[in-house]
Specification:
The complex is a heterodimer of chains A (107) and B (441). With 107 residues, chain A is an alpha/beta fold. Chain A has a domain at 37-107. Chain A contains 2 helices and 4 strands; from the N terminus they run E-E-H-E-H-E. Chain A has helices at residues 50-64, 88-96; strands spanning 10-13, 39-44, 69-74, 100-106. Chain A starts with 9 loop residues before the first strand and ends with a strand. In chain B, strands 6, 7, 8, 9, 12, 13 and 14 form a 7-stranded mixed sheet that branches. In chain B, helix 6 (121-127) crosses helix 7 (151-161) and helix 7 packs across helix 8. The longest helix of chain B has 20 residues, at 52-71. The radius of gyration of chain B is 24 Å and the shape is globular. Chain B starts with a helix and ends in a 10-residue tail after the last helix. The chains are: A alpha/beta (107), B alpha/beta (441). Chains A and B meet through strand 1, strand 2, helix 1, helix 2 and strand 4 of A and helix 1, strand 1, helix 2, strand 2 and helix 3 of B.
Chain lengths: 107, 441
């Protein structure tokens, strides 16, 4: 049996790829002080729980903020960020009319 | 998360609702788009749930948190997140004996769980003899981590997987396929991170199959051949260590998939009566190629009779819903079908026409249609012939295989030509005799 000293040693190269560091960006947009009277965007993706989640949320937010308005948007291309989809312009136009937006569902 | 970030970028404050099982995935997604402070609120609603009461309960618990996240003023940390200093990993990352190297790599999450070959300078230099490209040649940045896919990193992962230098041209072409993959639902990254546990399936055509001893015959998908084993394994390590897709963080496959260890097949062109797969995609028979799909499942079936009708009936009876299908005929059935006048195209036409499912079954696969009235008509399971691939492989015997699942949109990064380095014949000669020689007993 070889002793520990006789065991070959290996100097090995990292398999982990380098990646350029991306400086983190901070949030810059001020939040609304209150949701009442505001236009709230509700964006749902294609996955099955997404729209039902926002249905419940809309109902509950209406109870809490009776003057809030809701504006819906459905993801147009499965698993594709909407800003990279064929509907980028439509999405950007939709965003412009909102005070805040809630997305569902991340899974 | 990406959508919430795009809203913030356009001046609209956003909140994402996520499943509480995907917190690590959400953090990784936010960081990959350099906006770690984007707001998200976890809920207990299980992914893909259709149960109204469960959804109701999950949202009711979270609704105040969601509303609060929408109006809480930004914190200093959210306005100016501190950059986490990137870990500086030395090129030479460790020194130790075989066990210690393996423990170190395993502990860093750089392996697939099997022992690795230590990627030393000498082994990596030997691997690099399989390409004319310089080690620092950058093929591109692999999503989602945007890791730099250099030739050296491909070689390092290839050494770890036990690959031979003659596999480098295949690995480079396969990496290019991933780099060229489309964004979105049918792209490599989606299949890599999806809860669906899709597995890359590599089909290799051309003379290189025999030059590197890829198995296309008996037990084509079984262990026992270095090329089939190590090429798939190396690509799994490349996806992990260059693309940054790790199980349970980015790869959220629910069940996982043993095919992710390796799933590499060469078409048995010599035993096939039909044109090889790559010639259907505009390449010459003398070209070498690697083709990708992302099956979820792999099934085998046994025709009730070995005549044409029995073979084709068995094939259509075993077509199940998917997005991309590879039907693998063993040589005996391929020859029988060809002798009866069947071509790859007529086989596809037959499958499209005859592989059908009850319309009410298809409708019932959509949650909103459950409980609705049905009709007795049938609909095709496959509608686009371009999503159906026919190949010949395997040994003597009657079993037919189907690999069923996902894959690229037809025409988008499905196949890549393999470029050979100068001195290829000499290189092949050096490694060609590395084959198992089984002792008779």
């Amino acid at each position: 049996m070889p002793t520990k000293k006789e065991t070959p040693l290996y100097e090995v190269i990292s398999p982990w790829a380098e990646a350029d560091p991306i400086p983190p960006r901070g949030l810059t947009v001020e939040r609304p002080a209150d949701l009442d009277g505001k236009t709230i965007g509700l964006f749902h993706i294609w996955k099955r729980a997404s729209k039902p989640i926002l249905d419940v949320l809309e109902r509950e937010l209406k109870k809490r903020f009776p003057a809030a308005r809701f504006n819906w948007y459905a993801e147009s291309q499965m698993n594709t960020p909407e800003i990279e989809s064929n509907n980028k312009a439509k999405y950007e136009t939709w965003l412009k009319g909102l005070d805040t937006v809630i997305f569902a569902y991340g899974d | 998360m990406y959508d919430a970030i795009s809203a913030e970028e356009r001046g609209i404050p956003a909140v994402a609702i996520i499943s509480d099982g995907f917190l690590e995935d959400a953090k990784s997604a936010a960081s990959s788009r350099a906006m770690p402070g984007v707001r998200y609120v976890p809920t207990t609603v299980p992914p893909e749930s259709t149960i109204k009461d469960v959804i109701e309960a999950g949202v009711l618990v979270a609704v105040d948190s969601i509303a609060k996240a929408a109006v809480t003023p930004l914190t200093a940390a959210e306005r100016s997140p501190q950059a986490k200093p990137p870990e500086k990993i030395s090129r030479i990352v460790f020194k130790g004996n075989l066990d210690e190297v393996n423990r170190f790599y395993y502990g860093r999450g750089w392996t697939d769980g099997f022992p690795i070959i230590p990627p030393t300078e000498e082994k990596v230099a030997e691997m690099l003899t399989g390409t004319d490209l310089k080690p620092d040649t950058l093929l591109g940045k692999l999503i989602p981590r945007q890791g730099k896919a250099t030739i050296e990193k491909i070689a390092v992962n290839a050494v770890m997987a036990g690959a031979l230098p003659t596999y480098m041209p295949v690995l480079i072409a396969a990496t290019k396929l991933l780099l060229n993959s489309e964004m979105g639902f049918l792209g490599f990254c989606t299949f890599g991170v999806s809860t669906g546990s899709w597995s890359p399936f590599w089909v290799i055509n051309g003379p290189i199959r025999n030059e590197i001893n890829l198995n296309s015959g008996s037990g084509v998908l079984s262990p026992g051949n270095i090329a089939n084993a190590a090429i798939g394994r190396a690509m799994g390590l490349i996806i992990k260590n260059i693309g940054g897709i790790r199980k349970g963080i980015e790869d959220m496959g629910v069940m996982g998939n043993p095919m992710k260890y390796t799933m590499v097949m060469a078409e048995n062109e010599e035993a096939s009566p039909w044109e090889p797969l790559h010639t259907e995609y505009g390449l010459k028979k003398t070209d070498n190629s690697v083709m990708i799909s992302f099956p979820q499942s792999y099934i085998q079936h046994y025709p009730p009779s070995s005549d044409g009708e029995g073979i084709m009936r068995s094939v259509v009876n075993n077509i199940v819903p998917g997005m991309v299908y590879t039907v693998v005929f063993p040589p005996m059935h391929a020859k029988t079908l060809a002798s009866l006048g069947w071509t790859k195209q007529s086989i596809k036409d037959y499958i499209l026409k005859n592989a059908r499912m009850a319309a009410d079954r298809q409708r019932s696969m959509i949650a909103q249609n459950i409980g609705k009235s049905s009709e007795s008509s049938t609909v095709p399971i496959i509608r686009d012939p371009r999503t159906l691939r026919i190949i010949v492989a395997g040994g003597p015997g009657a079993f037919i295989a189907h690999a069923i699942g996902g894959g690229p949109t037809p025409g988008k990064a499905e196949i890549e030509k393999i470029e050979l380095p100068s001195g290829w014949d000499k290189l092949v000669k050096k490694y060609r005799n590395i084959v198992p020689n089984y002792v008779r007993y």
